[in-house]
Amino acid sequence: MDLRRLPAPFALAVALAAQVPNDSVLVLTTQSAFSPPECALVDPLGGGVTPVPLLFGPLAFVPPAGIAADPVDAQYLWFLNGETSLEAGIRRVPIGTLALPSGPSAGAAWTQVGGTRIRVGANRVFTLRAGGIVEATPKTGGAPFQLLVRPDAVDIAVLGNLLYVACRDAADPTNPAPLLELDLQTGVQRTVGSYADVRRVAAADSFGLIALAIDLPGVLEVDAVNGAIVGGFPTPGPVEAVTYGRFGTLVYGITRPGGCDVYSVLRSTPVFSSTQPVLIDLDATLARTASVVPYGAGCGAAAATAWVAPTSPRLGNTGFTLGLAGAPANLPIGLFLGESRLFASLLGGALPITLQPLANGCELLVDPLVPVTLVADAAGTASLPIPIPLAATLAGVEWVGQAFVFDPTVGPLSFAGTAGVALRLDF
Question: Which of 45, 216, 252, 388 could, after both became Cys, cross-link 242 (CB 3.0–4.6 A)?
């Protein structure tokens, strides 16, 4: 079926069933221990970076000790403040459409006193405190309870019913220290293996692999069952954080002179770079709830054009609209909807694709399967109704879009591209 011959809303509904959502990685950085943090959602395949403004109260002025994604409900981000902080403890922040905080942080229900590392499971929040105290706090609130104590513990990772605790001999890091596995259902604890110089740990969902950031610098991958080293990746600098995407993509963050970088093993160049010299933490997330998230960057007149989504693209939301604000008034807009932000099937190439010299400084960010023509009103706004049917087969699929607004200054094309926008459908 040729989607280009269908009206856009119907073409969208037909094509959505073939989509696969992308992973995102939360990256938390700061200038110093006394500076506000910066947060971003990063596509590990190089599909773009979305800043997440942390405008949710006093926490914005106190760099957290860690950040974690919720594996069950991606509209929540979790932060952990250090034990010596004036706001010590766990904070949960709801994130709405366009990656914006949709409400204040919540902390009163969690009585955790703070710590150094945080990870989130299906029903509990796991934290590592000074002295190697590993605790679990119910998501519904209440007092934390102690799981184990390992004075040499440096990091934790959670995967389903398994909790991993990485240890390091601080007196002599060349001495191997254990990687522990705790079964959260049975309470059975075992040693996966012993390794030297371990700083951080991550567990791969359904792949049976554990990543260990070591001081070579580099990242080791070990078999979660027998502890054997099965691979490794040299890194261009000291690894400060490591995680796995839902599809097994290994992502790690390093520090460098003047800032920090985040790498995916699928790319030779950074997928994220910052002038912030302190990489606090990163964690992988996959939007498991309906979401609308911009990515990449616009050019020319489109750099100031913003996406608007008054409601979430939930299944059955027949009144969903995707809009634009800040476009040149009373002029046409070309909107392209597509299946992927990674590959343009019509053009046979990986995205993004430079539009030089037709549009200087502009890139194509979507697979342009479905073209739609809009006209901005006198206020520079336009919107496209996209009724979303109540169909379970559409749960978890992703659709992307990019608009082009009139701008004769960018070159012969006379149209400048906006940032992309990714829509994930769900209940």
Answer: 252
